[in-house]
Design a protein that fits this description.
The structure holds two protein chains of two kinds. By secondary structure, chain A is mainly beta. In chain A, about 0% of the residues lie in helices and about 50% in strands. Chain B is globular, with a radius of gyration of 13 Å. In chain B, strands 2, 4, 5, 6, 9, 10 and 11 form a seven-stranded mixed sheet that branches. In chain B, strands 1-3-8-7 form a four-stranded antiparallel sheet, with no helix packed on it. The chains are: A mainly beta, B mainly beta.
Chain lengths: ~120, ~120
């Protein structure tokens, strides 16, 4: 079965410092991995996706993630946090066994950014 | 606005009542998904449609739940005889399916509170 585990439920950083949100995945297949962000009272928005074309994936708003097969990880990073980055972040794997399309979400990491 | 829309945004009902939610996907998208998100958790898959055909239902979707997508356009999710455990955010997403790397576009959700 495919799954993702987000290692931190809450991360707090100061504005201007780096962000690291950790995600490990479990998959018997070459996975399709995504990071989504959810701001309060707003819909989920795709930050980036891994499509096997490149292990380092760049997304919107300065975020990037690196796919590491040996570590089964897909951590999300950003060099310098901004106040507007405060939100809930979800690591997601696409179900390639069942419906081949529905998304399996991690439990989320809440990012707080202090001024 | 050409994004995914959901109505109503909020619904408060009494236990035992029936409720119906509507989702309007992005017009050219052939797949439509329903997810449920409870407090502090990531979204969980409920069901999905490819055009008008409902292709998969999660075990989370009890007999009290029914979803339709007539004519392959908008979709409705009905919950009969609501229970307090049905209180959650119900999310709709759509995609133009060509493979597992496709992005799903999410609506803002319908928050259901069962008293």
């Amino acid at each position: 079965a495919q799954s993702v585990t987000q290692l931190d439920s809450h991360v707090s950083v100061s504005e201007g410092t780096p962000v690291l949100l950790r995600c490990n995945y479990s998959s018997s297949y070459s996975p399709s991995l995504f990071w989504y962000v959810q701001h309060p009272n707003k819909g989920l928005q795709l930050l980036l996706k891994y499509t096997s074309a490149a292990t380092l994936v760049k997304g919107i708003n300065g975020f990037e993630a690196e796919f590491k097969k040996s570590e089964t990880s897909f951590h999300l990073t950003k060099p310098s946090a901004h106040m507007s980055d405060a939100a809930e972040y979800f690591c997601v794997v696409s179900d390639l066994v069942g419906s081949q399309g529905n998304l399996i979400f991690g439990k989320g990491t809440k990012l707080s950014v202090k001024p | 606005d050409t994004g995914v829309s959901q109505n109503p945004r909020h619904k408060i009902t009494k236990r035992g009542q029936n409720v119906t939610f509507r989702c309007d996907p992005i017009s050219e998208h052939n797949r439509l998904y329903w997810y449920r998100q409870t407090l502090g958790q990531g979204p969980e898959f409920l069901t999905y449609f490819q055009n008008e055909a409902q292709l998969e239902k999660s075990r989370l979707l009890s007999d009290r739940f029914s979803a339709e997508r007539p004519k392959g356009s908008f979709s409705t999710l009905e919950i009969q005889r609501t229970e307090q455990g049905d209180s959650a955010m119900y999310l709709c997403a759509s995609s133009l399916w060509t493979g597992p790397y496709n992005e799903q576009f999410f609506g803002p959700g319908t928050r259901l509170t069962v008293l």
